[in-house]
Amino acid sequence: MRLRSRSTFALLTTGTIVAGAVLSTALAAHAAAGCTVTYKVTSQWPGGFGAGVVVTNLGDPLTGWRLTWSFTAGQTINQLWNGTVTQSGASVTVANATWNGSIGTGATTSFGFNASNSGASNPVPAAFFLNGAACTGSVAPTTSTPATPPTSSGPATGVLDQVSTPSRARPAGAGVQFTWPGTYFEGRFRGTGVGFVLNDANNDYVIEVDGAIVGTLVTPGQTTYWVKGLADRDHTVRLAKRTESPWAVGEFDGLVAANGGVILAKPAARSRQIEFIGDSWTAGYGDMSTTRDCGSNGGVTRNTNADVSFGALTAKGLNADYQINAWSGLGMVRNYNGTNPDYNFRTYYDTDLQALYNSATWQVPSTWRPRAVVIGLGINDFSTALNSGEKWATIDELAADYRTAYLAFIGQLRARYGSDTFIVLTYPDLSYQTTAFATSIQQIVKTRNDAGDSHVSSLYYDDTALGLDHLGCDWHPSQHDHQIIAGALTQYLSTLPLTW
């Protein structure tokens, strides 16, 4: 990704966010949680400001913590102390340092940072989340924890009897929970109307009936969204998650037919399956925007739609089921600008609910065997210069670790999906920064091919030749670009001897 900083004058701002964990009643059991957050701008200068954050734990003792929030006025953290920070567009995650991970009940921890901002506005973030739980000043009740975490490989119950999904959705009571972008559900009903039962204050969704978009839901909360006035006949429905939420769970509790109607048997899974693995490009980061600065048009999250990312478009064009397993800002071995060196994309690839506090290893069902896996990891590893103090002194050292990790990751996929799955390594133009990315991808493919694995190949996205405009948020691919990339990828897949 390409990010450009902007300078302006910051206003002195102080705010206290009262927060406690408001968890859905179907959420799997965990310790009682609650917190308050005090956020205070402590200094200001033209184009930037300093701030301090104090977190008070109101729930059970913590042995590790992550605080997340979203900026709304283009603020960008440049330096942080007493923790580690990851920022992807407006979304910020601060994790504990090695020495301050424990917070007892009633105890506090604090950190500070320096940041740049654009415009005269510098508002206090509207909400904070501690280990995935929203902070409201109250303590959520403790619920019982099952001996074995439920996974999406178990027998279908409740909503999974109504709808089909290839996504990493974990049964939770009668509903399902999920975090990965692009998660989708498909069902059928007969009648004049249908309701979608949701419990999600973090994500946006798109709803389709008979292939036509009939609604876009923005952080719907706990609600039933109705579509009525339809012809009295059989209909197909689709619910798709547009946004990323690695620290906050979404929940779908099923379909409800309008009076006189009935929910029909769920549609059969498609015979074609594709898995997309990647970063912000794959997640559709800011793809709905027509301007690179999204500070004044709703922010990154409102402008993100994984359902029209190149992966979703490619799969839909091929009538394939798909997964989008992507996380903005994370790389194969190095995250964007070297942030949070203790983890990377591979840390979370095997999880069902990404970084949620009760995430577990995703138990791959026997029904999920994609014949094509498309990987786009490396932009965050190589798009920014190495910083002082990182583990790699040179780009060559970084590239060597990247190749080693990538080869191991391909081996992991081979063990999971078998030798017949085609693995396509994609990469865009980063020659303005380094050629190490492209060279590494080519060497990885050669190494696998030389070892007898002919089903590993690469696809280069030539920005100039393809005519990409990068008008999405923060120089990301726009909707126009995702359509072009989908066309290029579809054409490339047609050259492979895939037997669907």
From TrEMBL:
Organism encoding this protein: Paractinoplanes globisporus
Keyword Signal included in the entry's annotation: yes
Name of this protein: Cellulose binding domain-containing protein
Keyword Metal-binding on entry: no
Signal peptide: 1-31
Ranges where the CBM2 domain occurs: 28-138
SMART domains according to UniProt: CBD_II (SM00637)
PROSITE patterns: CBM2, CBM2_A, PROKAR_LIPOPROTEIN
Coiled-coil segments on the chain, per record: none
Keywords noted in UniProt: Carbohydrate metabolism, Glycosidase, Hydrolase, Polysaccharide degradation, Signal
Family annotation (Pfam families): CBM_2, CE2_N, Lipase_GDSL
Region (Disordered): 140-161
UniProt-listed InterPro entries: CBD2, CBM2/CBM3_carb-bd_dom_sf, CBM2_carb-bd_dom_sf, CBM2_CS, CE2_N, CtCE2-like_dom, GDSL, PCW_deacetylase/CE
Biased composition (Low complexity): 140-159
Domain of life, source organism: Bacteria
